[in-house]
Design a protein that fits this description.
alpha+beta; 5 helices
Length: about 260
């Protein structure tokens, strides 16, 4: 899209408020360890595999918005027995993602292909103007920038294949159109951008997930009608001290890229 046709407000985010999400995959011949942290969440997942299938799963929910989020580990066991794959799946018929912890589900969907590639890989997402209509989202893998988007709400304005796509409806097209790495990058970026929208919201003012059911009903494990009212807010769980990606997953060493 040329500068004469590009919607000018898409050029700059409305605020410098920055959201980061850092994700690490450490893969050996028999294990994939996944660590993800952002302002609202911190999960570590250990996935055992035999080179063909997932054989075991354990999860540590180290920081979550709601009290019952750690209980979603029992639903993660649905992934045991799933075959590893070369290309990530957008969905799995055997697993209802809305009955899972959204964030751990996403990590495991990526891990199904990561587990076949020994070594360490690090995704870093940065969203500038995080909770405003006009935003700038960037994604790196092992220090190489893969995606660079301006957004108006959920509409992408970019110089790549995603130009004018909408994050709410992009996955069906993406599954058909994209190469393996770009599809995986989209999967990681999409969730980070959506979570970034909560930056600046004081969740501590919301006593339980049931108060958000009008908007979030059925969205994930915590927002199922039978348990939302018992999903109490974990007061103080949102980090307000994240100034750069090195503040996240600090015990795993500095990030490959510090932006």
């Amino acid at each position: 899209m040329t500068s004469t046709t590009r919607d000018k407000p898409m050029q700059q985010p409305e605020s410098e408020h920055v959201f980061y999400r850092r994700v690490l995959f450490d893969v050996s011949a028999t294990e994939c360890r996944i660590a993800m942290e952002d302002e609202h969440h911190y999960f570590v997942i250990h996935l055992g595999h035999d080179g063909e299938h997932i054989t075991s799963l354990t999860s540590a929910a180290l920081r979550t918005p709601w009290s019952i989020c750690p209980q979603a580990e029992r639903r993660l066991q649905d992934f045991v027995g799933q075959p590893l794959r070369e290309r990530i799946a957008v969905s799995l018929d055997a697993i209802d993602g809305k009955q899972q912890c959204t964030h751990q589900y996403d990590l495991l969907m990526v891990a199904l292909s990561q587990a076949r590639r020994p070594g360490r890989r690090e995704y870093l997402c940065k969203v500038t103007g995080a909770m405003y209509e006009y935003r700038h989202a960037q994604l790196w893998l092992n220090g190489e920038q893969l995606l660079d988007w301006h957004l108006k709400a959920t509409q992408i304005d970019s110089e790549d294949v995603f130009d004018q796509r909408d994050l709410r409806t992009v996955m069906g097209w993406a599954d058909e159109a994209l190469d393996d790495q770009t599809l995986e990058a989209l999967y990681v970026m999409r969730r980070a951008v959506m979570v970034a929208a909560a930056k600046g919201v004081n969740l501590d003012l919301i006593s339980d997930a049931g108060k958000l059911m009008k908007r979030q009903a059925g969205a994930c494990f915590a927002f199922q009608p039978e348990r939302a009212d018992s999903a109490m807010r974990m007061i103080g769980s949102t980090r307000t001290d994240v100034r750069h990606p090195g503040n996240l997953l600090a015990e795993y060493g500095p990030p490959v890229v510090n932006v």
